[in-house]
Each structure stands twice: as structure tokens, then as C-alpha cells.
Design goal:
Number of helices: 23
Shape: globular
Number of strands: 17
Helix content: 55-70%
Largest sheet: 6 strands, mixed
Radius of gyration: 36 Å
Strand order of the largest sheet: 13-14-15-10-16-17
Oligomer: single chain
Amino acid sequence: MDQSVIDREIIDRYAGQPSTLPALLRARVEREWGGEPVVLYAHVDLDAGLRLSSDWLLLGTTQIAVARGPEPAQLTVIGRARIQAVRESPGLSANKLLILGAPDEPPLAVVRYTQRQRAAFENIRFVLDEALSGRVVASDDADRVYADAVARPIRDAQALMSKRGSAVIMRLLAYLRPYRRELAFGLAAAAVITLAGLVPPYLAGYVIDHVIRPAQAGSGVNERAAATAWIAVTAMAVLYLIGQFAAHLRLRLMSVLGEWVARDLRAELYEHIQRLSLSFFSRKKTGSLITRVTSDTDRLWDFVAFGVVDVSLSLIMLVGLTGVLLALDWRLGLIMVIPVPLFCFMIYRHGESLNRVFLRAWRKWSRVTDVLSDTIPGIKVVKAFNQEGREIGRFGERNEAVTDEFNRIHRMWTTFWPILILLVHATTIVVWVFALPRLLGDGAALSAGVFVSFLLYTTMFIGPIEVIGQMARTMNRATSSAHRVFEVLDSEPEVRDVREPVRLEPVLGHVSFENVTFAYDGVRQVLRGVSFDVQPGELIGLVGSSGGGKSTVVNLVARFYDASGGVVRVDGVDVRQLDSGHYRRQLGMVLQDPYLFHGTVLENIRYGHPEASLGAVVAAAKAANAHDFICRLGQGYDTMVGERGHTLSGGERQRVSIARAILHNPRILILDEATSSVDTETERDIQEALERLIAGRTVFAIAHRLSTLRKASRLFVMHDGKLVESGTHRELLGMPDGVYRRLYEMQLQLQ
């Protein structure tokens, strides 16, 4: 399903506001504007008195409009040429946007809105601010931008799909499909348990009425009756053995089956996470994702392993008991059977209440894991700033919150459950009230044997209701966890390959940008009309102030994101037409903070080329000036580097990273501040290694230390999302008022 459609469904379900601009209002405004289309809009949900309202702010290419009240709304149209400033006055729960004209006149428009609308208004404000600075923002689908702005906070805050719990359970049960045979055996074993449990009470009643009572009455017991009694007792023993053997099979089959389903879910979830775009990870916390892959999938095991069969067994047992009780004595049977729908309804309502609380509990559980995923990797910073106490307090606060939420769940079900069982026992008391006069000879005849059988079946009646009641809690745990798992599985990667992608064999390294624009959020452009052409083998230095767009350029070259406008080409082919995996196998990156995985030095160097020989690894390490320090390590190439390589120095991690890139042998290489955080001697070693690495490759090198880029074929100077200067180091220094020259002279002054 298209993401904008999902966003509109989320707004309709959760936000309580229109999911799109009313069609009649849009048509009326565009007529007022002389056919000019609506570019952006936002919902004005507060009036001047801070009461809830349903007004609109609409943005066109040359005009804006404020529509107040229901259609036909009071419409105020303002030419954008009159706007001289836009101011936002934020508050805790309400915000105000002022659109200002000349200094001596009152505001052209004042609108107030809640925090829910803030992203949509920030989009409009950004476009107006850019226009005041002389920059034009490329227009996008106004409905899509509005829906994304309103729905995104809801998507990020809630691990929910806009589907009912029953749909989630059905989707979860679909994972049993590959194990139909094991499931069938489990259900068959459950049926055997049910049948084996239904017969002994009947046999007990038969023996009492036809053997024991006649003997106690003095009428004697013939050999045939005695033999029948012993056969009944033997049959009961055999049935109990069969039932327990079937129970053993059921437990064994279903526990293993539950683990298989949990394994499949974990594998599918992790595989899907690997395919998602970087933008997804910028919106999600690491702890939340870890919880979904581990804890949430594990919680589903209990439901799949026992919930499915136990509920099925209980329902079969209830149906069987209903038939047997009515057959034994329809009057007493009705007393037991009639309240069952009421019990089931109570269980359903209790489950609905639990579901809402479980969702809150799992969100708070994710907040606990978020603290762990934040502080454990950053423990050095925590200790450096002596913030252990603060982090202990933060963890303790969230730990208490999640404990309170789970205790609330326990209070709910421990209150409900005794009441339910008390009501079930009450039906048994009612059975005694109606049966006792009949046993004493008042009313329809009722034999002691039949009543004993009936009582035994009555005690069995409690079991299925108890299982169904307990399963409501298990099912709610499973439903809330399944919601969170399926939310990730339903997330679509924003960077996707076309149906028949192109494979470049090999990549030559000719990279061109053609009027490329890009916005991470679809509105705020961080690249504006960037164009350049890089020939194979060129070393391009990307320089400029922070936020100028350097990292965004290399992100687009690597196709971590797709351009919002224009085209990025590699060897003349639009990167969106390339096979991403095949292309990235010919792309290498050396980052400012190199990431090493927990493992040996050898495994880290081989990461991009796992089948490489030891000789090739050593050759790459020598080229990276890493071989000597590796040999000095305790276990050489088999030394464990720890998580993120924390046992190595920054320069050592960087050289291992360069060796990894050399072994990968990329055709396009990206260097992101590769020498910014090392000392002078280490920088010299790394520079030597980089010179060997970049030979014969197309290289994009980001550096704030401009002296490291003197050997670059060309320098691209990025400023405010634009390519403002291009040329060699000498050529750019020759520009008296150039941006590069100013940056270079500032660095000389600081040395």
C-alpha cells in the first residue's frame, strides 16, 4: 500500500482531523488564485481564543490564503510579494505563526495551532523563508506532504498497524502454514486428550448405578456385573494413559513448533531490517528495534506453542461437555451451559482492556532498552562526565514506569480471574440447588450415578473456561508484540531497485549530478540545483562549512537516498536504474569514525570480501600501514578487537578500516574526514595508506583540514546546499573573494 494512503488512514483513525484538504475548498481557493495550484497547506486547529477549530492555511506559488469556518469559509487572500518576514511563537501546547508585511502595518495573518500540526506549519514556514532569501523550493504533492507531516509523529510514537487485533492474530497464524503436518498432529493429540477425558466420568456413573448401588442395596452382584465394573476401571486407566501420552506428544510438538515460528519471524524481521533505507533508522531508536527482534518474537512463542492448540482444545472440550451434560440431564445441563456465553463475553471485554495496557507496557519496555542502547556504547562519555548517577536515575525512572504498567496489568487480571471462577463455581452451586430435591425423590428422577457423572463433568467444565480466560492475557501479549513486529515488516524501503535493474560490469567511476535537489523530509532542501561531472580516476575534494551539503552529496553517490529532483548518474546510467547491491559491492567508504565489528582483526578486514585469502588480507594491511601494529598485538590477526574496536586506538581503527577498503577493491571510493581525529604522525601513515588506496579510483574526499586536499584533481566548494566554486587548489586560491580562499586563510590564522 502507498505510504500516503497509510498516512491518511492513520490520521482518520487517530488524529480526529481531516486527512486531506476538502475538495470544495481547494477548488474555491484555486479559482480565487486564477488557477494557481495549492502547493502546501496546514490545518489551523485553534482559533484566537485557543478553542478547537477547523480552519486552513494554504500556500500557492504567488499567494497564500487563510480559510476560516466551515464551507463556504471566510477566505483571506494575501499576495506573497507583500510578505517580509515569518515568525513562529512556540508554546507548550499551542503555537502561533505570524506572517508579517511592512514594519508599519499589522501582521498580514496570524494563525494558531496545536503541536500536532507543527510539522505541517514548519514546512510552510520553510518555503516562505527560502523565498525571502531568494531561493525557490521545488514543489511536491501537497496532500502527501501534509499527510506525512501529521501522521509521522503518530507512526513514530506508536507501534501499531491500523488493523484490528483479529487481523493481526490471523496474520500471525499464517506463519504456521509451513508446519501444517506438525500442527495437525498437535490438534489430533488435543482431540485425543479431549475424548480420553470425556469417557471416564461416564464410566464412573455407570459403575455406581449398575454395580455399586445394587450391591449396597443387598441385591447382590453377579459375575458379569463385577467383570463389567473391572473392565470400566481398566478402561479408565487405559484412557488416562492414552491422554497423558497424547499430552506428551502435544507439548513436544507444539513447543518445538513455537520455536520454529519465532525463529522464522526473527529471521524475516532481521532480513527486512537489513533492506530498509537509512531514513528508517534515523526515525527509530536502536533499543526499540532490538526489542522487536528479540523480546517481541520470543513472546510470540508462548502463544503459538500453546495458545493455538490450548484454545482449540478448550473449545472442543466445551462443545463436547455441553453435549454430554445435556444428554445426561437436559435440565441441569442448561444450568451449566446458559452462562457460558456470558463468561466468554466477560473474557473478551477483559481482553480488550488488557490489550490497551499491554501496548503501553511494551512501549515503556522499549524506553528501558533505549537507555541501555544509548549508555552502553557511550559508557566512556558517561564516565568522562561523571554521569553514572544520572544514567542510573534515568534507567531507574523508566524501570519503575514499566514495572508500574505491568503491575497494573497484574492487578487487572488477578481481580478479574477470581471473579470469573467464582461465577463458574456459582453455577455448580445452582446445579446442587436444583439436583438435591430430585436426588431426595422430589421431582424428576435423578440417579446418584448420573449425578456423580454430571458433577465430574462439571469440574471438567471449569478447566476450558480457565484456559480461555488465561489465554486472553497470553493472546494480548502476543497481539501487542505482533503489532510491533508487523509494523517493521510493513515498513517499505524508500530506496528500491526497479524491476529489471542494470548491472555495470565493471563500474568505471564516471559520476555526474544533473541539477540535483534533495530534501530529507521532502521540503527542506539541503541540496539545490547541484550539477557536476567527475571523470573516472579523479580525486574530488568536497569542502565547505558544516551543513553545506557535503555528506549529502556522498550519500546520494552511494544511493543511501534518492534525489528529490534531478538525476545522479554513474557511467551514464541513472543510479535509480542500477542494481543497488551489485553497485555497492564496487563502492568503498572510509569514515571519520570507522566502525569495527566485535570479532578478530582478520574478520574485520575481510568484512567486505569474506572469501579473501590470508595473503590478500596481509597485503591489504601492509598497503594500509596496519601490518606492523597488527603483528604487535597479542594474537596478531586473530586478536579480538572488542565491540566497535574499542581495544584499538583511533589511528589503528582507521588503518584497519582502510585495509578493509583496499581488500574490497572499490571502483568509487568515499573518504569522510578520514584523518580528522588522529595525531600528526598517525595522519602521515594514514595519508600514505590513502594514496595507495585512491590510485586508479574515482574518489570523493570530505575534509575540513583543507591542506589534506592539495593533491585533489578538483575541489568542490559546497555552501548552503549549492556548489558555489569548483577548481584546483591553486585556481580557487586565485579567487580574491572566493569562499575557498576565505576558509583557507581562516585555517592558516588558526595554526
